[in-house]
Amino acid sequence: MNIIKIEKKCHLQVYKRNEIVVKKASGKYIYDEEGKKYLDFFTGVSVCNFEHCHPRIVSAIKGQLNDYMHVSNLYYAPVQVNLADKLISRSFKGKVFFSNSGAEANECAIKIARKLDSDKARNKKRYEIITFNNSFHGRTLATLTATGQEKFKKGFEPLPVGFKHADYNDINSVKKVVSEKTVAIIVEPVQGEGGVVPAKKEFLVQLRKLCTQKKLVLIFDEIQTGMGRCGEIFAWKVYGVRPDIFTLAKSLGGGLPLGATIVAAQYDGVLGFGDHGSTFGGNPVSCAAANAAIDLLDEELLKNVKEVGRYFMQELLKLKSKHKVIKDVRGLGLMVGVELTEKGAAIVKKCQDNGLLLNCTKDYVLRFLPPLTITKKDVDTTIKILDKVLKSVENIRFRPLKQSGRRLPS
Ligand code: PLP
C-alpha cells in the first residue's frame, strides 16, 4: 500500500494535503519520491525561512545532541537562556517564555492579559480581549476563539468567553468595542491566514496610542511575520510601533518546533511560580537551532528580503497588467499575496505540476512565503511559471469551440 493510502487509513483527515510524498528537502528545494524537484515558495508556512536543513542550523542541532536532547525546565539549560538573552537584546527590556508552537505562544500572552487584574475585585477585573475579523491565532480553544474567522470555530461551542472582534485597519471599529472590561488587543502586523493583508502604519500607530491611553496590553502576533519575513527581524520594527507583548513560533526554531512570548518589563511579574509552564517548551535542541537561525539573520539577509521582496512585487504587478484573473498584489517583504478573481486551488496545483510550491489562503489569495535567501533569478523562475499557468487557465476559460465558434463562458 502506498503512503497516501496508509495516511488516509491511519491519520485523522484534518489536512487537505497536496499529493507530494516528500523524500528530501534541501536548500530552496523539496524532492518527491519520484525525484521531482520543486522550488519551495511556501517553506512549510514560513517555518523554513532559512531554507531546508541549512548547514549551520544542522550543525548547531548536532552539537546540542552531543550534549543532551531534553532536560526539565526545572533545571537551567544554557542554550535556552542564551536564546532568551538574544531575543531580548533584539527587542526591548523584558522577559521571554518558551513554548512549542504558535497557539501556545498566544495562550501565554492571553493568560498574562487575563491575570493582569487578578488582584482587583471581581466586578472590576478586566478580561476582554479585542482581536480582528479575518485574523488567525491558533487552534486551541482560546486561540480559535480569538481568531476572527467563523469557519475555525464551527462545532466547537461553547467557546471561552471574553473575546470581541473589530475590523482590521479601522481604528473607529476598535474604539466601538473597547469597554471598561477590555484588557488587551491582539493584532497581526500582516494577516497571513486572512489573505495576506498588511496593517496600515497609521492603524498600528493609533492602536498603540489607544492602548497607552486606556492602559491596555498591545499584543502583536508575529508568528508568521517574525524572524525576518517582513524585512526586519520582527515586523513591529518595520512599522516602528512597539507592542507590549509579541509572540513568535514557525521559523523561530529554524525548522524545529519552538514558540516564544516576549513580554515587556512592565508585565513580567504578572505570571509567577506555578502560573504557567510547559514540559517541552524551549527544548534545548530547538533552542540550539533558533540560536543559529538568529545568527543567520544578519543585515545582509534582511537587506535581501527588502530588495528581492520589492522586485517580486514589481514583477507580480507586471503580471497583473497581463492577467485579468489577478485582482490585487500585496504584502510586506517576502510575505506576498496575489488575490485572484477566482478560486486559486487549481492554479496552486498547476504551479506544483510545473515545479513550484505555493499555497492558497482564503480560497482566492495565492500566498508566497519563500526562503529569505531567494534571488531575483528565483523570482524570475516563479514569475515564468505563474505566467504560463495563468495563461493556461485563461485559455481554458476562453477556448473557442471549434464547431460552433462559441466561446466557453468564464
Ligand atoms: N498565529 C498566526 C498568525 C499563525 O499564522 C499561526 C499559524 O498559522 C498561528 C498563530 C498558530 O501557530 P501554530 O500552528 O504553531 O499553533
Give the helix tally. 13
- Helix fraction by DSSP (H/I, runs of at least 4): 25-40%
Kindly report how far apart the N and C termini lie: 40 Å
Strand content: 15-25%
Please write the string of helix (H) and strand (E) elements: HEEEHHHEHEHEHEEEHEHEEHHEEHEEEH
Order of strands side by side in the largest beta sheet? 4-12-11-10-7-5-6
Low-confidence blocks of residues: none
Overview of this protein structure:
With 410 residues, the protein is α/β, with parallel strands linked by helices. It has 13 helices and 17 strands. It has helices at 3-10, 43-46, 55-67, 78-89, 102-115, 141-146, 171-177, 201-214, 235-239, 284-296, 299-322, 345-353, 376-397, and strands spanning 22-26, 29-32, 37-40, 94-99, 128-132, 163-166, 182-187, 190-191, 197-198, 217-221, 245-248, 259-264, 326-332, 335-340, 356-357, 359-361, 365-368. The strands form four sheets. The protein has a seven-stranded mixed sheet with strand order 4-12-11-10-7-5-6, with helices on both faces. Strands 1-2-3-15 form a four-stranded mixed sheet. Strands 13-14-17-16 form a four-stranded antiparallel sheet, with helices on one face. Strand 10 (217-221), helix 9 and strand 11 form a beta-alpha-beta unit. Helix 4 packs parallel to helix 10 (284-296). The chain is globular. 44% of the residues are buried. It binds pyridoxal-5'-phosphate. Pyridoxal-5'-phosphate is lined by residues 45, 101-103, 106, 136-138, 188, 192-193, 221, 223-224, 249.
